[in-house]
């Protein structure tokens, strides 16, 4: 029943979950997104970043999901993985119940080990991490997901971390051949002159300063980086249920190993 409840929580049911996407200590990011199942179906976020000029006569830069029928979907691949792993877990339960020999300890042991692996992988997918999510510069979102399209100097990276939605926004500076790679290099450009004279606004510090990335086939540096996190109650409920299932399966495996007289890892 716990697995079925997880599937129900991840099902694409309208109206979905509408979540606030806003920076806590500043006006840098203000807006919302709506998740239905594994997809983000609506979104309206206003950006006030010092390195992203707003359109004429506007005070913020609009970041809106396109409603055009031909617009690509914004899919959370981690949730797709979680749903698939839970479905595989349900298949294991069905096979154990209706197909296999319930009196064969070795068969039940193997099914419990398989179930444990699937549940652990599903929980890890919700937990996130670099190995699960991937690097932001390697898999950029389709710019046509947004209306107007995402500018080439803005990176939008949305993922799942600890069952919450985690959004990173980065403004980028393309690096052309022959361009100094440090903002403080000795150059006669207007930007560097303002920087050296102390007339330019100081950009917020971040952990990717002066690093070079290849983004959409172009070497870039990150000028400004903003992190916004939004808790998703449905995903948190799925995470809690998976943790409880992982514990219950672990107890069952340990008990069966004792009866079989083998080590738990061998059961």
What can be said about this structure in brief?
This protein is α+β, with helices and mostly antiparallel strands and 267 residues long. The chain contains 6 helices and 9 strands, in the order H-E-E-E-E-E-H-H-H-E-E-H-E-E-H.
Topology record:
Layout: H1 2-10, E1 17-20, E2 29-36, E3 39-47, E4 61-64, E5 74-75, H2 77-99, H3 105-127, H4 130-133, E6 154-161, E7 164-174, H5 190-197, E8 212-215, E9 218-231, H6 233-260
Antiparallel strand pairs: 1-2, 2-3, 3-4, 3-5, 6-7, 7-9, 8-9
Helix pairs in contact: 1-2, 1-6, 2-3, 3-6
Distinctive features:
single chain; 267 residues; alpha+beta; 6 helices
Description:
- By secondary structure, the protein is an alpha+beta fold.
- 36% of the residues lie in helices and 24% in strands.
- The strands form 2 sheets. Strands 1, 2, 3, 4 and 5 form a 5-stranded antiparallel beta sheet that branches. Strands 6-7-9-8 form a 4-stranded antiparallel beta sheet.
- Helix 1 runs antiparallel to helix 6 (233-260).
- The longest helix has 28 residues, at 233-260.
- It is elongated, with a radius of gyration of 24 Å.
- The relative contact order is 0.15.
- Residues 181-200 have low confidence and may be disordered.
Report, as a whole number of angstroms, the end-to-end distance: 24 Å
Topology, number of strands: 9
Low-confidence stretches: 181-200
Shape: elongated
| Overall residue-averaged pLDDT value | 88
Question: Which H/E pattern describes the elements?
Answer: HEEEEEHHHEEHEEH
- Total count of helical runs of at least 4 residues: 6
The profile of the biggest β sheet is: 5 strands, antiparallel
Helix content: 25-40%
As a percent range, the share of strand residues is 15-25%
Gyration radius over CA:
24 Å
Secondary-structure-derived class = alpha+beta
């Amino acid at each position: 029943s716990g697995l079925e409840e997880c599937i129900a929580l991840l099902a694409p049911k309208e109206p979905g979950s509408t979540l606030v996407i806003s920076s806590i200590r500043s006006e840098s990011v203000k807006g919302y997104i709506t998740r239905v199942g594994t997809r983000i179906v609506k979104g309206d976020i206003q950006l006030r970043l010092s390195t992203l000029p707003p359109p004429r006569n506007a005070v913020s830069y609009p970041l809106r999901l396109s409603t055009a029928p031909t617009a690509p979907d914004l899919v959370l691949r981690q949730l797709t993985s979680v749903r698939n792993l839970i479905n595989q877990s349900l298949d294991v339960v069905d096979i154990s119940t209706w197909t296999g020999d319930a009196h064969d300890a070795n068969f039940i042991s193997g099914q419990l080990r398989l179930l444990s692996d699937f549940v652990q992988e599903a929980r890890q997918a919700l937990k996130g991490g670099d190995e699960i999510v991937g690097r932001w510069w390697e898999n950029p979102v389709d710019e046509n997901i947004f209306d107007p399209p995402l500018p080439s100097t803005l990176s939008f990276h949305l993922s799942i971390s600890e069952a919450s939605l985690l959004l990173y926004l980065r403004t980028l500076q393309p690096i052309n051949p022959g361009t100094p790679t440090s903002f403080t290099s000795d150059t006669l450009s207007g930007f560097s002159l303002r920087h050296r004279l102390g007339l330019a606004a100081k950009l917020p510090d971040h952990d990717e300063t002066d690093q070079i990335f290849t983004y959409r086939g172009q070497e870039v540096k990150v000028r400004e980086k903003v992190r916004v996190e939004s808790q998703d109650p449905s995903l948190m409920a799925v995470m809690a249920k998976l943790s409880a299932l992982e514990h219950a399966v672990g107890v069952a495996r340990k008990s069966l190993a004792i009866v079989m007289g083998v080590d738990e890892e061998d059961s």
